[in-house]
Amino acid sequence: MDRQTRSAQRKDSSQVTSSTQADVIIVGAGHGGAQCAIALRQNGFSGTIAMIGREPEPPYERPPLSKEYFAREKTFDRLYIRPPAFWDEKGVDLVLGTEVVSVYPSAKQVTLSNGSKMVYGTLVWATGGDPRRLNCPGGELAGLHPVRTRADCDQLMGEIDGGVRNIVVIGGGYIGLEAAAVLTKLGCTVTLLEALPRVLARVAGEELSAFYEKEHRGHGVDLRTGVAVEGLEGEGRVTGVRLADATVIPADAVIVGIGIVPAVGPLIAAGAAGGNGVDVDEYCRTSLPDIYAIGDCAAFACAYAGGTVMRVESVQNANDMGTCVAKAICGDAHPYHAFPWFWSNQYDLRLQTAGISLGYTETIVRGDPAARSFSVVYLKDGKVIALDCVNAVKDYVQGRKLVEAATSPDRMQLADAEVPLKELLPA
Question: Which cofactors does this gene product need (predicted)?
């Protein structure tokens, strides 16, 4: 297949016909879907591949949206996972600006939002999730922004360019904290609201939460925990956020960062097993024949969380699952057992997380948080299960090996920042 032929295969939703088919259809053009297509070609797959994406852009990196892109430190063309021409060169047919609305497993067919149908040999579901919306009065007002897509960020950036300065961020997870850090850098007045008693409560220990709360307040963020949003005020556009105690916080715009809802409706409607996402086995297969699921929307038994069935929302997980599925399609199936890791950039702080701290029973702090370089080590039944490392790259690199080896090191040595973690590995 020459390049001209491949280029002709590139479609938008208006060009899809009822006869379109592909050996592998990948639903979702994010990190997982893109990596699956790349890995298919790297592993010698010569069949036809179609990737269906809701957005009009070719696959791009999502994490920089709330960081470098939002802060105007990176232009959008630097966010592409691969240059746009790459997909044509590799024979990957991009079907953009549309989405799958129904799946028919017995016919191996999907229906798109424009009414067109596509037939597949193997289907890979890589749709991620949709931003969770506020369920309160005023949730339909203009001026509310998720931070999930380029369009989300472009709209908010346009409002800031137009003079919006007083912004309320709802949600004290990583998305909310990263957005608050960038907005502060842009000169905005930021109020951050978290319903739980501390930020990052679902993913980190108290030590890390306290550190980031202090950092954000030190940078001028009005950070409030343990507060409930009762509703939003405004005529057509939001002008304030009303709390449960009747306090009204003025707002020119509101960022809603309260998590995602897995985008698996069509699969569940087609009979796939699932609840919080779609359930997959150790090879990322759903309960439906010839249908895989990967990334944020896939729930699996995570070996690094004691076998707990869970979704892992990370670029690492999406990429590694994509590779796992590609190898299985190419006849080289191996159970998914990738090591989980995460990161977050806020101000001049680089947080790197190794492992999953779910169910930890003890924490040990290495170093001094006041020095802005330290690690929180999470243990369960004496074994190291995860680390949060703030500006502590060596701890991160060496600490992940402690997690992989399921070590039970001496606590005094573990707490001593002068003792390299690699020295605590079993001989």
Answer: FAD
Phi, psi (5° rounding) for residue 398? -80, -30
Q: Structure tokens of 258? A: 């309260």
CB atoms within 10 A of CB 46: 11
For residue 38, the one-letter residue type is I
Contact between residue 228 and residue 217 where contact means Cβ atoms under 8 Å apart: no
Dihedral of the alpha carbons of 113, 290, 335, 354, in degrees to the nearest 10: 0
* Distance from chain centroid for Cα 315: 6
Of the candidates 383, 390, 391, the residue with the CA atom closest to the CA atom of residue 411: 383
Residue with tokens 């502590």: 392
Q: What is the DSSP string of 189-217?
A: EEEEEESSSSTTTTTS-HHHHHHHHHHHH
Cα first-last separation, the chain: 54
Sequential DSSP letters for 124-189: EE---EEEPPP-STTTT-BTEE--SSHHHHHHHHHHHHTT--EEEEE--SHHHHHHHHHHHHTT-E
Give the SS3 label for residue 9: helix
β-pair type (189-194, 166-170): parallel
Question: CA–CA separation, 155 vs 147, rounded Å?
Answer: 10
Output helix, strand, coil percentages for the chain, rounded to the nearest 5: 30, 30, 40
30 vs 81: CA distance, rounded Å = 9
The residues with which 116 forms a beta bridge, in sequence order, are none
16-60: pLDDT as tens digits: 444 489 999 999 999 999 999 999 999 999 999 999 999 999 999
CB 176 within 8 A of CB 169: yes
Tell me the pairing of strands 373-380 and 362-368: antiparallel
| pLDDT mean over 3-21 | 45
Token pair 């295969």: residue: 9
Distance CA 357, CA 207 (A): 13
Cβ–Cβ under 8 Å, residues 48 and 122: no
Task: Please report the DSSP string for 359-378 in residue order.
Answer: T--EEEEEEEGGGTEEEEEE
As a whole number of angstroms, the distance between CA 362 and CA 63 comes to 30
**Under DSSP, is residue 397 helix (H, G, I), strand (E, B) or coil?**
helix
Q: Is the separation of the CB atoms in 147 and 70 below 8 Å?
A: yes
pLDDT of residue 117: 95
The residue length of the chain stands at 427
For the segment 244-271, the average pLDDT, to the nearest whole number, is: 96
Helices H / strands E in the chain, number of each:
10, 27
